[in-house]
From TrEMBL:
<dbReference type="Pfam" id="PF00956">
    <property type="entry name" value="NAP"/>
</dbReference>
<dbReference type="InterPro" id="IPR037231">
    <property type="entry name" value="NAP-like_sf"/>
</dbReference>
<dbReference type="InterPro" id="IPR002164">
    <property type="entry name" value="NAP_family"/>
</dbReference>
<comment type="similarity">
    <text>Belongs to the nucleosome assembly protein (NAP) family.</text>
</comment>
<protein>
    <submittedName>
        <fullName>Nucleosome assembly protein</fullName>
    </submittedName>
</protein>
Length: 106
């Protein structure tokens, strides 16, 4: 079954016999998998594509490459906690001892 469709039961009434029957109809729903459905290209290859379309496809392709090269190979290590994240911007912070709180009123 396609995860981007949900089956909805609808009631159909026959106009002549007035009998009812239930029909299961697939209805498209929003899912993560719709991300991978590219826009439809024109049939004529001589038509120039809009710059917005080209930018969108390029960014989607770069995101897909990042998933393939960085996230998917390391998914098991992230899940099990065996991989320590590499953070180049990390700065060690010195933890200072707590100061006693003065609760007396002056």
């Amino acid at each position: 079954m396609d995860p981007s469709y949900r089956m909805v039961n609808m009631q159909q009434t026959n106009t002549v016999s007035k009998s009812n029957r239930i029909i299961a109809k697939p209805v498209r729903i929003k899912t993560f998998f719709n991300f991978f459905s590219p826009p439809v290209l024109p049939d004529d290859p001589t038509i120039e594509l809009k710059p917005e379309y080209v930018a969108s496809v390029t960014s989607d392709y770069e995101i897909g490459l990042y998933f393939r090269e960085e996230i998917i190979p390391n998914a098991y290590m992230f899940f099990t906690g065996q991989m320590i994240e590499k953070d180049d911007n990390f700065v060690d912070v010195q933890i200072l001892p707590e100061r006693p709180v003065n609760t007396s009123k002056q």
